[in-house]
Amino acid sequence: MRNNIILLLFGFILFSCSDNQSNKLHLPSVNGKSGEVLLILEEDYWNDSIGKHFKDILMSETPALPQDEPLFDVSQIPNEGFTKMLQASRNIIRTNIQKGLKPAINFKKDVWAAPQAIIKMQAGNEAEFLELLDKYSTQIVEFLLEAERHRNLLRAQNYEAIEIERKLKKNYTIDMIIPQDFQLYSERKDFVWLQKETRNYQMGIIVYYYNYTDTATFTQEYLLNKRDSVLKVNIPGANKGSYMTTERRVEPFLSHLKFKGRYFAELRGIWDMTNDAMGGPFVSYTTLDKKNNRIVTVEGFVYYPNNNKRELVRQLEAILLTLKFED
User: Fold this and answer.
1) Alpha-carbon span 90 to 37, nearest angstrom
2) Domain end residue (candidates: 112, 127, 157)
């Protein structure tokens, strides 16, 4: 799913092309929590094979988290329950199964509220609907994920840490959107560490780079070994001799994507502290800065013990994917 370059680009195009801006100005803001999906589906179908397929697609396990969390939190209601009050829901899937209807799927945004994601699906019978659902399952997930990424980015853009962004540009030739609640924690010649700390959790953003040699750089083993060598030196723990590393007992995994025309190697896994009892999820994006002949990695990690971390990781994803370089 995450390996499909075309589909991620598909999702970005849908959420970056401009609709009628004047209409958007008059739309209310979406409601609901991040990751929620309102599924409008009759009860009989929800309790049968169609419902099972939707659960398999939308509520499968989110990859590379310490505990099980579904991709989305799904609420199902019948068509008659879709009242005006629910029209401002952030993510909506509407279904219609009636004799005579041709199978069709339609992806829309900002219909009743903004920024909103709407998917409309129809078919003439259950078998046709299942075929439609199977065919477009990956597009459905990527469309909803991109909608959440888009909202996270909008929040980040509203409160930017301008001074930190300027420093990244001036000292490291790196352009990224950094929210105000991140502070510059540590920096070296080729390494930057930004940190957000609250009473309950911590989020970190790190940037590091090194000379490009060959395409072997983008293999999983190379990226993991480079990650561990960089973090051992730059992110120490509280205990003597402790440092951040990759938890290898939970297999990290690598995927490849193209976003805004740039190729990224996306690495997900669990970070750990050697000689310390800390850990959590991380996601990193590695790309080639061709002009400067260097490999650049931007990574986000979360520390939030005994709590769900899905949405915090998604916030970091949105920030990391704003990476670009000054020409």
Assistant:
1) 7
2) 157
Q: What is the pLDDT of residue 86?
A: 97
Tell me, what's the pLDDT at 81?
A: 96
**Would you say residue 326 lies in a domain?**
no
Helix axes 137-158, 310-320, angle to 10 degrees: 70
Backbone dihedral region of 231: left (phi > 0), alpha (psi from -120 to 50 degrees) or beta? alpha
Confidence (pTM): 0.90
Residue 327 lies in a domain: no
299 found inside a domain: yes
Whether residues 57 and 170 share a domain: the answer is no
Which residues lie across from 210 on neighbouring strands?
295
What is the CA angle 156-160-162, rounded to 5?
A: 155
Identify which has the larger pLDDT, 120 or 18: 120
Residue 63 — φ and ψ, nearest 5°?
Answer: -70, 150
Retrieve residue 172's tokens.
């490291």
Judgement on whether residues 218 and 237 belong to the same structural domain of the protein: yes
- 31 and 112 housed in the same domain: yes
Which DSSP string do the residues of 16-61 spell out, in sequence order? HS---HHHHHTSPBPBS-TTEEEEE--HHHHTSHHHHHHHHHHSSB
Q: pLDDT tens-digit profile of 53-109?
A: 999 999 999 999 999 999 999 999 999 999 999 999 999 999 999 999 999 999 999
Residues 285, 298 contacting (CB under 8 angstroms): yes
**Spatial distance between the Cα atoms of 123 and 125, rounded to a whole number of angstroms:** 6
Which of these three, 129, 157, 185, is where a domain ends? 157
Residue 11 is predicted with a pLDDT of 41
Does a structural domain hold residue 100? yes
Structural domain count of the chain = 2
Pair (150, 19) in one structural domain: yes
| 308, two tokens | 């769900």
Residue-range definition of the domain harbouring residue 227:
160-320
